[in-house]
Design a protein that fits this description.
Mean pLDDT: 89
Strand order of the largest sheet: 6-7-8-3-9-10-12-11
Number of helices: 13
Radius of gyration: 21 Å
Length: about 325
């Protein structure tokens, strides 16, 4: 992790609520984290933990209604993005914060050529004319490893494989040289070989361009290979945050420990039965007043039913929202 580098993003007490026919859904609850220049933050958790909603809340990508960001701050370059007008936010989102969506099969517009979709942000945000934008589009496709880039600009999305479409999505997100790239499970729909190629590509681009990256995933194996720091989410909130080596060496939240136990291990002998986390994620119909993991936790106690633990620092840049970790930090 970049030590002492400047912050490019600082999120404080973010809360997002959805209005539904059945009542409110509190999807994001008091989420706080920061991101340094050049850092790669991995965000992990099972489906419904609030990973994607948190990141889409930061840059105004959720439809309102039904979504409403109730409170919090998202500081970027001295500006609170939650208090920024729509036009300015659109310019920041297109030029300075890139977003790679989850499904490469549906994220590109099928009726426009790849060249058109690459040129559009360059013309809008960088003020380029069509000729300059076209030349830059060729550079971008070359950058993400698409052969015959000049010819492929004329092709439509359906003429690309899944892996190539994901590369195009990354190229579009990188078009304006963003300071932050948010990648929302960009390898989920791809086969294992293509996943490895995309991960290697991201490593190369990060080293070459020096951008900060937020990588959303449910795959801890992916995080182990690319992240500097890991943020674990459950029930719409952050339950643990630590440098990547620390999270694998010394996990402290029961949910993180359970996640790590579900990773399959390959060995010459017949492996044991794959571990699972019993139970279901919590219903988020109200703001949490108790630990969200209590019903699935092997070490929960009475206090977990009455209070929602706050995150405490246990050293080595390690924050944990658990009463057991709170006791250990007080005894240290």
């Amino acid at each position: 992790m970049p030590d002492g580098g400047p912050l490019v993003l600082d999120v404080q007490n973010l809360n997002t609520v959805f209005a539904t026919r059945g009542g409110e859904v509190h999807a994001v609850n008091n989420v706080s984290f920061s991101l340094k220049k050049g850092e790669l933050l991995g965000v992990v958790g099972e489906s419904g933990s609030g990973k994607s909603v948190t990141m889409m809340s930061l840059i105004g990508l959720l439809p309102s209604p039904p979504a409403e960001v109730r409170n919090g701050k998202v500081m970027f370059d001295g500006r609170d993005l939650l208090q920024t007008d729509a036009n300015t936010l659109r310019d920041i989102r297109g030029a300075r914060i890139g977003f790679v969506f989850q499904d490469p099969m549906t994220s590109l517009n099928p009726v426009f050529t790849v060249g058109y979709q690459l040129r559009e942000p360059l013309i809008r945000h960088m003020g380029m004319n069509k000729k300059a934008a076209n030349a830059r589009a060729v550079e971008l496709l070359d950058l993400v490893g698409i052969p015959d880039a000049a010819q492929r600009l004329k092709d439509f999305p359906h003429q690309f494989s899944g892996g190539m479409r994901q590369r195009v999505m990354i190229a579009i997100a990188l078009a304006c040289d963003p300071e932050v790239l948010i990648a929302d499970e960009p390898t989920t729909a791809l086969d294992v070989t293509i996943q490895a190629q995309i991960l290697e590509l991201v490593k190369e681009l990060r080293q070459k361009l020096g951008m900060a990256i937020i990588w959303i995933t449910h795959d801890l194996g992916v995080i182990a290979g690319i992240a500097d720091r890991v943020m674990v989410m459950y029930g719409g909130q952050v339950v643990e945050q630590a440098p990547v080596r620390e999270i694998f060496k010394n996990p402290q939240h029961p949910y993180t420990k359970a996640l790590l136990q579900t990773i399959p291990h390959v060995s010459g002998e017949r492996s044991e039965r794959l571990q699972v986390i019993e139970g279901q994620p919590p219903m988020l119909g109200a703001a949490p007043t108790a630990c969200p993991f209590r019903d699935r936790c092997d070490v929960s106690h009475d206090r977990c039913e009455r209070e929602n633990p706050e995150r405490v620092n246990t050293g080595a840049g390690h924050d944990v929202a658990c009463f057991l970790a709170e006791k250990e930090s007080m005894n240290a």
